Each structure stands twice: as C-alpha cells, then as structure tokens.
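Hey all, sorry for the wall of text incoming. These are the two entities for the joint prediction.
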Amino acid sequence: ARLPRSAVLKKILDSVKDLVKETNWDCNEEGMSMQALDTGRIVLVEVMLREAAFESYACEVPMTLGIDMEPFGKVLRCAGGDEKVTIKASRNDQDHIELVFENEEKERMSAFELKLMDIDGEHMAVPDAEWGAEISMPSSEFKKIVMDLAEIGSDLTIAVSKLGVTFTAQGNNCKGSMVLQPSTAVDKKSEQVAISFTEPLEMTFAAPYMKMITKAAALSSTVTLSLDEACPICVRYEMEDNAGHIKYYLAPKED
Amino acid sequence: KPRQLLISRFFAPA
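and here's what came out:
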C-alpha cells in the first residue's frame, strides 16, 4: 500500500491513539480498515482507508495485521508529512510489516520494520440505525465547542429541537450552553451547519471522551453527528475524494 | 450524576 503523503496516516493515528492501544487492521481488496473499542469500552472507533486513498494498493490475499499503536506512531513520526509511505506485508512472513518513507527527490529514503501482534479483536456489529437527528457542521467549530464546554463541566449534553442544536455543559460552579442554528447565509458547503431531526431529543455524553474524538478534525473539514434516543452518538469524519472515514460511536450517559 | 453506559449494552459482538 503506497500513500502519496504520510500526513493522512499520521492524522489517523493521532485521532485514535488516545483511545486505542492495539488493534487489528483488516486488509482486503477494498482497502485497510480497523474497528476497536477503547479500554473503557465506552467508544467504538472505526477507520476505513479505501483503495482511493492510496497512490497504489494491491492486496492479493486478505490479511489481518495486529498493530501496537505506540511503536507504529513512533515509526510514523520518523516520516516527513510530505514523504511517500509504502507499507508492505508479506504472506510468507507474517511476523512483521515493512514501512518505507521516501521524499519526492528521493534523496532520502528510510526503512522500518514493525513487529506484528496476535490480537484477538472481537468485532462488534453496528446496526444500521435510522437516526432521530443528524447535524453536519464544520469540524473545527465542533472541536472548539467541545473543548470550551469540556472546561465548564464533564458532562456534555446535546439537544436537538426546532431551536437548532444546543450544547450544554454543567460543572460544580458554572454552566454553559451554545446554540447553533442551521446556517443558510454561508454558501461554502464546508462552513454550513445543517440540522435534520424527526423528533426533538436530548442526550448526555462524557466530555473528556468527546474531546478525544474531536482530534479527528484534522482529517476532514466537516463532521456529522448522528443521534438517536438511547443509542451511542456516531461522530463521523469523511475524508475527501472518497479516501475513507473515521467513525466514533460514543455510548451515552443515562439520565 | 448521570451514569456512563457501555458500548456492549448497544452493540453485540459480530
């Protein structure tokens, strides 16, 4: 698998490393994907890197690569953001993968080997829910709201009604709420706030987890929040050019 | 204080 720039892979790693310590990457002709629970079993993370993300991609036989995210991150940090990354996994020798970083002028090339692990990852079946509410908004705006309100209180309540979407945090000595209306003024798609809902709903989540989730803002300029009563929220970052996505399912808090 | 629920309450192993 060859990526034109290591930046995408670095951002993906940064988006999951606080939540997932080790995980299986499933490789098949469609691309590379992973699904993992955080240690607290409160968030399910799904990453999909489609063939479209790669400069070249070939997968003769489906393979599962057990990867420890810590050393993987250390190796990736050795790659310049603009350097080409080639990941090779041999079917005959499945105890490691090779990573090669090359910069454009090829005046520099670095090669790494990463030992693979045997991880008995249980896959969770995520039902295709029809959502009671969906919000799409700039990922940077969602990140700022979450980071700001997480300072106010550890519980983040998200309410969707005809007023728009209201984010509320409650602490011991302060409380804050921010209301977003669907934006029709701005024309740039990536700046718009769109809200659709079938019935009003209000749910509460752990702000520290939502903070970790917003790190994926580096991957996509927009984020989609999908909510349904008594269901984990799905926070989805779609990468452009159908390159793939990262989805977080965060379990709610019970009233 | 609202109680944190776990993912396994909503999603079953595949």
